[in-house]
Write a structure and sequence with these properties.
The chain has 470 residues and is α+β, with helices and mostly antiparallel strands. It has helices spanning 2-5, 29-32, 51-63, 65-86, 136-202, 208-215, 217-242, 247-250, 274-277, 279-300, 345-411, 417-451, 460-467, and strands at residues 91-102, 117-130, 305-317, 328-337. It has two domains: 2-88 and 133-303 and 345-467, Outer membrane efflux proteins (OEP) (Up-down Bundle), CATH 1.20.1600; 91-131 and 305-338, Single Sheet (Outer membrane efflux proteins (OEP)), CATH 2.20.200.10. The chain has a four-stranded antiparallel β-sheet with strand order 1-2-3-4, with no helix packed on it. Helix 3 crosses helix 5, helix 4 (65-86) packs antiparallel against helix 5 (136-202) and helix 5 runs antiparallel to helix 7. Mean pLDDT is 88; it is low at 1-6 and 459-470.
């Protein structure tokens, strides 16, 4: 007790941050009122029912250098955790020494060795074991396991981000193909107008100015198609790069055939279940746990440390009697160290670990809040998109009727072709708007799946790290 009373004090060093309980956050009416659906499956992108997309995501998962780097970090963190665990186990070793030595004649060396040279030999086995009475090594071990779990969750997040990026790029590619169809139709209509205008001019029913006016939009229409083709090429390159392949792999990507028929809603028990579903939230949660274990380990360093030491072997001068009962040596006993004055090293270490906990806790709180916001944002986009698409479909129906009437009027000689072309342009713009709204829907669905964790539970690597706990 006197030894404990004389130890370095840790008073006044406590964490300031506290982690937020998910259920303490107000989910908001958008989340609360959402219809209930199942949690995403691990292969959530198959809801788009496009085999080419399935193949691209599969290639991304297996071929991405970013994911392989993340997986290597997992292996590194697990190896470190195993090495930390080894520190808590008994350490058994053996050593031997053979030394040619001249012994002094002025100390307690008996004859015939005093003042003479002889072989001084020793062979011994030793054992050392940290009893870890205050749990320091155990806390450090649990902290390393927590860090390994966090790294495994981060690898899952990298995988999810790559899957989502592939799907979103593919959605953009689908939209560009649709926009190209519309641009081709616009070019065709302009060419029809030019043909009619030139025939009218040739028949003496029009002017040169009207021909020039009809020709003017053509270069812009062709430039629009060229710009779309460039964006298609860039998206193909991007999809190839996501899977760790060169641009040539993108050349084989054909037009997407996306067909999403999935209900808009949220799984039950949000936001509580986000903690176990989103890899980024998991990673930050494990880092909080690891930081707490590091604090426990730093506190344990303030108490006496007791190591059990033992050895057994042989020691003799010369070789003849080295392996004999007379040359036997052995010993066992504790080694005790007590921190009394260390210049503030232990308090400084505890303060650093405590500050690290505060950082980890606030990072967790921030990620949790952003995760809930992410879910709500994507749901708002999807709900609003449904209303916008409904209005756009109505506008398209009206525009098509107006265009049909304009064409009937033109064929009856009651109006010129420009009026029909103007109403057709309105139709094309409505189609462009619907194509963009459809892309927003497909994109927001992918973002919602990512926001919900993409079917992720506790990662296999994380479970493997946990399974190796003592």
């Amino acid at each position: 007790m006197l030894l404990l009373a004389g130890r370095v004090s840790m008073s006044g060093i406590e964490p300031r941050a506290r982690t937020t309980e998910p259920n303490m956050l107000d989910a908001g009416k958008t989340i609360v009122s959402a219809r209930t659906i199942e949690w995403p499956k691990e292969d959530w992108w198959k809801s788009y029912r496009d085999q080419q997309l399935d193949a691209l995501v599969s290639k991304t998962i297996t071929g991405s250098p970013s994911l392989r780097v993340a997986q290597a970090r997992v292996a590194l963190s697990q190896a470190f955790a195993e090495s930390v665990h080894a520190e808590s186990l008994p350490n058994i070793g053996a050593d031997a020494s053979v030394t040619r030595e001249r012994f002094t004649a002025q100390q307690f060396i008996p004859p015939p060795w005093a003042g003479h040279t002889a072989w001084n030999n020793q062979v011994a086995a030793s054992l050392s074991y940290d009893l870890d009475l205050w749990g320091r090594q155990e806390s450090i071990w649990h902290a390393s396991v927590g860090e390994a779990r966090a790294t495994a969750a981060e690898a899952q997040q990298v995988k999810l981000e790559l899957e989502t990026a592939t799907v979103r790029s593919y959605v953009q590619l689908a939209m560009e193909f649709t926009l190209r169809d519309i641009a081709e139709e616009r070019l065709h209509e302009l060419q029809q107008r030019i043909s009619i205008t030139r025939r009218s001019h040739a028949a003496g029913l029009g002017t040169e100015m009207e021909v020039l006016e009809a020709d003017t939009p053509l270069p812009l229409a062709r430039a629009q198609i060229e710009a779309i083709d460039a964006r298609i090429s860039l998206l193909r390159n991007q999809l190839a790069a996501l899977s760790g392949q060169g641009p040539g792999a993108g050349d084989t990507i054909t037009r997407p055939t996306l067909s999403l028929d999935a209900a808009t809603g949220l799984p039950e028990r949000l936001p509580a279940n986000l903690v176990g579903r989103r890899p980024d939230v998991q990673a930050n949660r494990w880092r909080v746990e690891a930081a707490q274990q590091n604090i426990d380990g730093a506190k344990a360093a303030f108490y006496p440390n007791i190591n059990l030491l033992a050895f057994i072997g042989f020691q003799a001068l010369g070789f003849g009697q080295l392996i004999s009962s007379a040359a036997n040596i052995a010993g066992i006993g504790p080694a005790i160290s007590l921190p009394i004055f260390d210049g503030g090293r232990r308090r400084g270490n505890l303060s650093a670990k405590t500050a690290s906990f505060d950082i980890a806790a606030e990072n967790y709180n921030e990620v949790l809040v952003r995760a809930l916001q992410d879910v709500s944002d994507q749901l708002v986009v999807l709900q609003s998109n449904a209303t916008q698409r409904n209005q756009a479909e109505q506008a398209l129906t009206t525009a098509r009727k107006a265009n049909e009437l304009a064409r009937i009027s033109y064929r009856a000689g009651l109006s010129n072709y420009q009026h029909a072309l103007d109403t057709q342009e309105i139709v094309l713009r409505q189609q462009e708007g619907i194509a963009q709204l459809q892309a927003v829907r497909l994109d927001a669905y992918a973002s919602l799946m990512r926001a919900l964790g993409g079917g992720t539970m506790d990662s296999p690597a994380s479970e493997a790290a946990a399974a190796r706990q003592p």
